[in-house]
Design goal:
The protein has twelve helices and eight strands. By secondary structure, the protein is of the alpha/beta class. An eight-stranded mixed sheet has the order 1-7-8-6-5-2-3-4, sandwiched between helices. The structure holds S-adenosylmethionine. The site of S-adenosylmethionine has 20 residues, from helix 8. Keywords: Methyltransferase, Transferase.
Length: about 260
C-alpha cells in the first residue's frame, strides 16, 4: 500500500467510527504540527536504559524479593491454550512484553484493581489476570482498535483464558476517552501497566494521570521505554527511582510508588 492510499484508508476507516473521531482529530493535528513526538530523545533514552538495565530474573528476585519461575511454567496449560488462540487469529497485532514481570508485580502489590493501556491479543492482560483472579480482583483495560484491520476488534484479548474474563473490563476507545470512563468505575489502582500510545507526548499525558491514580506502595510499569525519552524525563522531573528491565532486546520501566 502506498503512503497516500494508506493515509486515505486510515481516514475512511476512522470516518466509519464516530466513537474514535476525537482520536482522528488528534492524529490530524499531530501529523501536521508534531510529527517528531514518537522518537524524541531515542538515542539518549536507549543509552540510559542500557546503562542501568537488569534482567527480569534479577528484578523479580532482588527487587520484588520472590522466587522467579517463568510465567509460562507457572501456567503451562493456560499458556498453551493462549498460543493456540493467537495462532488461529487471522489478524496481526502488537506483541507481548515480559509476562513474568507483569504477573509478579501484581503479586507483589497484592493487586485487587489493576489498569492497563494497550491490549492487542491480550498477553499482558492474561498475565495480570492470572494473579488478580486469586483475589477476585479486576483488570481495567483501554485499547483502541487497529483501525485498518476490519476483524481485529473480534480478536482483541483473544489469548485471555475464558475463566478469567469475568474479572476483565475492556474499554474500546483511545486512552483519552477510555481512561475517564474507567476512572468512573475505579479511582485508585494497585498496578498500572502502560503499553498503548508510544509517542513522547502521549506517554507524558498518560504517565502523569495514571501515576496520580496509583496507590502508595503500588507498582507502575511502562513498556518500550527506550523508544523515546518520555519515561526517562518523567522520572527525572519527578525524582522517581526507576528499575529498567531488559527483555527480548527491549526495555520496560518500573517504579514502585513510595
Ligand atoms: C503493543 S500493543 C499492546 C500489547 C499488549 N499490552 C500485550 O502485552 O500483549 C498496543 C495496543 O495499544 C493500542 N493503542 C495504540 N494507541 C492507543 C491509544 N491512543 N489509546 C488506546 N489504545 C491504543 C493498539 O491498538 C494496540 O492494540
Amino acid at each position: 500500500m502506498s503512503k497516500v492510499s494508506e493515509i486515505a484508508s486510515t481516514f475512511f476507516a476512522y470516518l466509519k467510527r464516530p466513537d474514535l473521531y476525537p482520536e482522528l482529530r488528534r492524529k490530524i493535528w499531530k501529523n501536521i504540527f508534531n510529527r517528531s513526538s514518537g522518537l524524541r530523545g531515542k538515542e539518549e533514552a536507549e543509552q540510559w536504559c542500557k546503562s542501568i538495565a537488569i534482567s527480569e530474573k534479577h528484578f523479580i528476585e532482588k527487587v520484588l524479593n520472590t522466587t522467579f519461575i517463568p510465567f509460562e511454567k507457572l501456567f503451562p496449560q493456560e499458556f498453551a491454550g493462549a498460543l493456540q488462540a493467537q495462532a488461529k487469529a487471522p489478524v496481526k497485532m502488537g506483541g507481548a512484553g515480559s509476562l513474568s514481570v507483569i504477573y509478579y508485580i501484581n503479586e507483589y502489590a497484592n493487586a485487587q484493581k489493576s489498569i492497563e493501556t494497550g491490549v492487542a491479543y491480550g498477553w499482558s492482560s492474561f498475565a495480570a489476570l492470572a494473579s488478580l483472579v486469586h483475589r477476585n480482583g479486576m483488570l481495567y483495560s483501554s485499547d483502541m482498535p487497529y483501525i485498518l484491520q476490519n476483524q481485529s476488534e473480534d480478536f482483541v484479548g483473544c489469548v485471555i483464558p475464558e475463566k478469567y474474563r469475568s474479572n476483565w473490563d475492556l474499554y474500546r476507545f483511545a486512552d483519552k476517552e477510555s481512561l475517564p470512563k474507567i476512572f468512573e468505575k475505579a479511582s485508585s489502582f494497585d498496578v498500572v501497566h502502560y503499553d498503548s500510545d508510544k509517542t513522547y507526548d502521549g506517554r507524558m499525558w498518560a504517565y502523569k494521570l495514571l501515576w496520580s491514580k496509583l496507590r502508595k506502595g503500588g507498582v507502575f510499569m511502562s513498556d518500550d521505554v527506550g523508544d523515546n525519552a518520555a519515561f526517562k524525563d518523567y522520572c527525572e522531573q519527578n525524582n522517581h527511582q526507576p528499575h529498567i528491565i531488559e527483555f527480548d532486546g527491549k526495555f520496560a520501566g518500573v517504579i514502585i510508588k513510595e
